[in-house]
Amino acid sequence: MPVVRLRAPLSELAGGRRELELAGGTVVEVLRALEREHPEVKGWILDERGLIREHVNVFVNRDYGREDTAVGPDDRLHVLPAISGG
Amino acid sequence: MTQLLVGTKKGLFVLEGRAGDPFEIAARTFAGEPVEFAMRDPRTGRYFACVTSAFYGPKLYFTDDPAGEWQQAEGPSLPEGGDTKLERLWTVVPGEQEGLLYAGGAPGVLFESRDGGETWQLDDAFWNQPTRPEWSPGAGGMCLHSIATWPGDPSRLALAISAVGVWLTDDGGETWRHGNKNLYPRYMPEEAREDTLTLCVHNMHRAPKRPERLFMQFHGGVYRSDDAGESWASIADGLPSDFGFPLVVDPEDPDSAFVIPLVADLGRTTPDGRVRVYETRDAGATWTERGEGLPAENAYLTILRQAFDREGGGPDMGLYFGATSGDVFGSGDAGKTWFTAASKLPPVHSLRVA
Fold first, then answer.
1. Domain count, chain B
2. How confident is the model at residue B190 (pLDDT cuts 50, 70, 90)?
3. CATH fold label, A3-81
4. ipTM of the prediction greater than 0.85, yes or no
5. What per-residue confidence (pLDDT) applies to A84?
6. Do B85 and A82 touch (CB under 8 A)?
7. Mean pLDDT of B67-81
8. Which tens digits make up the pLDDT trace of B3-59?
9. CATH assignment of the domain containing B304
10. Among A51, A69, A86, residue whose Cα is nearest residue A2
11. Which residues of A touch B109 (CB under 8 A)?
12. pLDDT for A86
């Protein structure tokens, strides 16, 4: 299964886990599986529309991923805050 | 001891002190996150903070100890699978029933809690207003920033939105109607002023001892309503500028209001480099400048809509406001004299007396 890697504060919302194996064939499917397993994450990465928040980056291995990016069983999803802010 | 909840661009600051002396920073939380608004429900002592992470979106938190752990409230969010997301939460207001609270946010949304603020539900009737597709945001977003309850009557509410005017309900939010008569949007073409929905209210408060009376700071205009928000009359004569954001009323005196004028329309700083609060005690017929102790030269401050509040009422009423400069000013005598409560904070978004 794909592995999702999280940093604080998301890892704290996921019960302190920085790495989770979750099922799914696309980025959004894996992130929905994360929300089902750890409901406190709901609303933090995906907004109400089901879109990745503007200033959150999801990488599939080393490449930027979007909601519909395909994810294989050996892939790693890195969820990171974007380089933005002020 | 007075406790101030100061929401800033970089976290919530809890300041404590006594009028006349500098305040101490008793706690700082949500460090680095924009805190748009924070308040304490006087009925329960519970604190609320609206935090809009640049990364993870708007969240509402509550706690009984602002220096301790905060818990994320369940709710406020928009229907899943739609094409709109919640952008920001602008205010939390206690309701007129046990456990009842309201929250307002962008894009022009009202939430209600019936359990003291732990879970929140969208007001569907307001969300489904048929004119919503025609609504326009102000520069700060389509913020529902003012929720005026009616003392003792939970069925009556007045809301104000930038830039969708005033909304009234007499049935607890099941049906809504406009309350915009005689508002004058000079930023619109003359031909469009009569029936436009683009009415940029900056702030609105009810006079609790005469609840059919409301005061409003408009985007160019200061108004009073004596018919519960159905219609409005200008009371801006005598002010150095009719533009500004915050507004406070003395709950003991229904003829009172306090505003902080800013240069209209693009400047949005204190006029002439002087920081002054203006007070009326005759329902807006006349205004008195209150600035003793406030910066009197080379001070070009911006005070945002939620960054002005009061403590108590009457001649000893406390008044406190914060500026985007990071300064916080206070008065312990209803504005006659002022002192600097804090300085060098991050830009102040909001201030409420706990």
1. 1
2. confident
3. Ubiquitin-like (UB roll) (3.10.20)
4. no
5. 60
6. no
7. 96
8. 999 999 999 999 999 999 999 999 999 999 999 999 999 999 999 999 999 899 999
9. 2.130.10.10
10. A69
11. none
12. 60
| Total number of residues shown for chain B | 354
Domain boundaries, chain A: 3-81
The domain of B272 spans 2-353
Residues B11, B8: Cα–Cα separation, whole Å: 5
Contact B319, B248 (CB under 8 A): yes
Q: Is residue A85 over pLDDT 70?
A: no
Separation in Å, CA B251 to CA B121, B155, B214, B247: 29, 21, 12, 13
Q: How many CB atoms lie within 10 A of CB B215?
A: 27
Q: Is B280 helix (H, G, I), strand (E, B) or coil?
A: strand
Nearest to B206 by CA among B261, B248, B260: B248
3-state class of B194 per DSSP?
A: coil
Residues B354, B13 contacting (CB under 8 angstroms): no
Our CA-based measurement puts residue A86 at a distance from the nearest CA of chain B, in whole angstroms, of: 9
Whose CA is closest to B201, among B254, B144, B258, B132?
B144
**CB distance from A36 to chain B under 8 Å?**
no
CB contact under 8 A, B85 and A56: no
pLDDT of residue B189: 79
pLDDT tens digits, residue range B96-147? 999 999 999 999 999 999 999 999 999 999 999 999 999 988 888 899 999 9
